[in-house]
Structure prediction request, 136 residues.
Amino acid sequence: MSMITTATFLSAALLLLVPGILSLATAKKDQIHLKIYNSISHGPNVTYTLDIAFRGILLGAMNNLQKDDRLRFSYTEDPNYGPFLVRVNGLAGNNTEHTYWQLLVKRGKTIIIPDVGIGCFIPKPGDTVILKFTKW
Prediction:
């Protein structure tokens, strides 16, 4: 292959890649709500409105919210199941007291329990994600 053909090929390939790269950087953000609900002490609920990348995972949006110091949370990484939410805004689940943070999602008038956790769940625009402190 001659130098000119190689340079032409590489230039064409780069032009095909650049729009995809640029679209990821400037991708449209969707909005969801994140509600923190304590069903045990019935303390005040806190609701955040946050942006989430198109088809982005909940954990990514929560990390962005934490960077802004509006939400504090921690999780452990389970080797089989991924991130497991442990603590939200200073309140941690406790095995002795049988408490944990449950992930729920309100879509319209329906509340669902996702079959995945915060590391795999992909919210839809307009979802209200509920982190519910509760007992098992």
Remarks:
- The first strand starts at residue 29 and ends at 38.
- The chain has a mean pLDDT of 86.
- The CA atoms of residues 77 and 83 lie 4 Å apart.
- The chain has one domain: 27-135.
